[in-house]
């Protein structure tokens, strides 16, 4: 295994991915941000210097397990202090599992300003090797003309009594690069679809071409054919697409953004945000044909079974029930809450508190209002999420590919309190959408220590507080040492921390 090293200066640059020019957060003077590429077993090193001038920053590597390197996970106030302007941080960790991932700022609702990119971990023993000729990445995202900080400020105003998130100005594909994906007829492509969205779910349809799904998030699945996918914020799908070889022409594809309304099978054909791209097999040919979608009937996520069948893990040793909906805090600010409580961001990162509170670190009371849940090494945790809201919400757990046991359709009501009926193979992924007025039950095992966030991946809802903190095997984190550059950032931010004694 090798080491891949990236040196990044992060700064504001101008870009116009949808024709409207605005400042975005770029890397080494350019935007879109680069792709991180590594192979299973490699060490990935990212040396970041914050040249934004006016904002702190940081990077989270979404979907990466961070086995015994939780302090490299990236969320500010959770596993590190924010990186102030003029300062640096080095992330260094091993990638232990193959897949399509992405990285993004996990600081102040910052990734909708453009600080995000794909992260690919190649598999030397890819079970689908030989079934495709080439790989391409297809990113989809909602897009905003105002900067995130302003959008968040408006959202968190007491006047926002309807809990409205910022509404995007449009949709972009591949960060505004060409919407043409160059295909050669007869070849098969592994298309790695990634959603960078902050709010909307993307519906995708390729004219005349089936998608054969081989991976969801960073978990292989049994090859499953579909014509349409719904990709929620932060989700990924790897699909095989064989370029039709009976003719040589350009086939349109449609990406349509659902602005966090619930999806019923016969929902309106079009939301206001649509993007037509092309599987371009004839560069000199026609690029005017529009898609032929007449109905959205995306595959149900629950159809994707792990490549190696996996019954639910058990027996459950810890059950967590989380009801989520919107709420107003003591200051009259609109929030989003778990069991009535919004997460209140902490100055001292929770992981640092875990390291320094000794035997008290198994007591949730030492962590403040972060919705803390404490688990022991080896615990099999079941989380039941009740969606009390009338919209769909995509939930992500850091550090794990969890099992999805029950995921009923919209309007199914609340979790009964009883464990799953599933006995066969259940899906595994890191981001699952919870249907409106319905619920999801997930399970995972505590296999290594760390502090892992569990939150709605609608970035605006993170800023509203729809986050819980899973503190896993804290007994193994007492007195751990943090890298000096990480601590220097705390000192520069005047964040009191008495660790590394
Ligand atoms: Cu993709 Cu908490 O993150």
Automatic annotation (TrEMBL):
GO terms for biological process: cellular response to iron ion starvation; reductive iron assimilation. One of its GO terms (molecular function) is copper ion binding. InterPro entries: Cu-oxidase-like_N (IPR011707), Cu-oxidase_2nd (IPR001117), Cu-oxidase_C (IPR011706), Cu-oxidase_fam (IPR045087), Cu_oxidase_CS (IPR033138), Cu_oxidase_Cu_BS (IPR002355), Cupredoxin (IPR008972), CuRO_2_Fet3-like (IPR044130). Keywords: Copper, Metal-binding, Oxidoreductase, Signal. CDD domains: CuRO_1_Fet3p (cd13851), CuRO_2_Fet3p_like (cd13877). PROSITE patterns: MULTICOPPER_OXIDASE1, MULTICOPPER_OXIDASE2, PROKAR_LIPOPROTEIN. GO terms for cellular component: high-affinity iron permease complex. PANTHER family: IRON TRANSPORT MULTICOPPER OXIDASE FET3, MULTI-COPPER OXIDASE. Belongs to the multicopper oxidase family. This is Laccase.
């Amino acid at each position: 295994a090798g080491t891949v090293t990236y040196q990044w200066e992060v700064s504001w640059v101008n870009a116009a991915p949808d024709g409207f020019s605005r400042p975005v957060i770029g890397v080494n003077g350019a935007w879109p941000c680069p792709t991180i590429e590594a192979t299973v077993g490699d060490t990935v090193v990212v040396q970041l210097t914050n040249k934004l001038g006016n904002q702190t920053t940081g990077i989270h590597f979404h979907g990466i397990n961070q086995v015994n390197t939780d302090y490299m996970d990236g969320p500010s106030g959770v596993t590190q202090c924010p990186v102030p302007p003029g300062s640096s941080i080095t992330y260094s960790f091993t990638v232990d599992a193959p897949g399509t991932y992405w990285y993004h700022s996990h600081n102040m609702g910052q990734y909708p300003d453009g600080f995000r990119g794909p992260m690919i971990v190649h598999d030397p023993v890819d079970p689908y090797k030989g079934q495709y000729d080439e790989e391409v990445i297809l990113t989809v995202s909602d897009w905003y003309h105002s900067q995130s900080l302003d959008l968040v400020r408006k959202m968190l105003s007491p006047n926002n009594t309807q809990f409205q998130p910022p509404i995007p100005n449009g949709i972009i594909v591949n960060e505004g690069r060409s919407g043409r994906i160059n295909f050669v007829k007869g070849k098969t492509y592994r298309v790695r679809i990634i959603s960078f969205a902050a709010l909307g779910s993307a519906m995708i349809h390729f004219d005349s071409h089936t998608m054969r799904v081989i991976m969801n998030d960073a978990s292989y699945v049994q090859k499953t054919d579909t014509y349409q996918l719904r990709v929620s914020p932060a989700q990924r799908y790897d699909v095989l697409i064989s370029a039709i070889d009976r003719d040589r022409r350009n086939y349109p594809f449609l990406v349509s953004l659902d602005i966090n309304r619930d999806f019923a099978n016969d929902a309106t054909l079009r939301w206001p945000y649509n993007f037509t791209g092309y599987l371009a097999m004839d560069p000199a040919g026609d690029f005017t044909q529009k898609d032929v979608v007449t109905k959205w009937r995306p595959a149900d996520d629950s159809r994707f079974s792990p490549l190696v069948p996996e019954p639910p893990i058990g027996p459950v040793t810890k059950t967590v029930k989380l009801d989520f909906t919107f709420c107003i805090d003591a200051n009259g600010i609109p929030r989003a809450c778990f069991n009535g409580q919004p997460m209140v961001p902490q100055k001292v990162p929770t992981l640092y508190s875990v390291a320094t509170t000794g035997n008290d670190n198994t007591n949730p009371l030492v962590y403040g209002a972060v919705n803390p849940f404490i688990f022991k090494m080896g615990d099999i945790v079941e989380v039941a999420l009740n969606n009390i809201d009338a919209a769909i919400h995509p939930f992500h757990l850091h550090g794990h590919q969890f099992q999805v046991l029950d995921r009923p359709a919209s309007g199914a009501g609340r979790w009964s309190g009883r464990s799953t009926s599933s006995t066969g193979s259940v899906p595994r992924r890191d981001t699952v959408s919870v249907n409106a007025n319905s619920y999801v039950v997930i399970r995972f095992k505590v296999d290594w220590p760390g502090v892992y966030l569990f939150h709605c991946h609608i970035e605006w809802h993170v800023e509203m507080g729809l986050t819980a903190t899973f503190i896993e095997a804290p007994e193994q984190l007492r007195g751990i040492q943090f890298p000096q550059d990480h601590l220097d950032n705390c000192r520069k931010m005047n964040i009191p921390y008495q660790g590394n004694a």
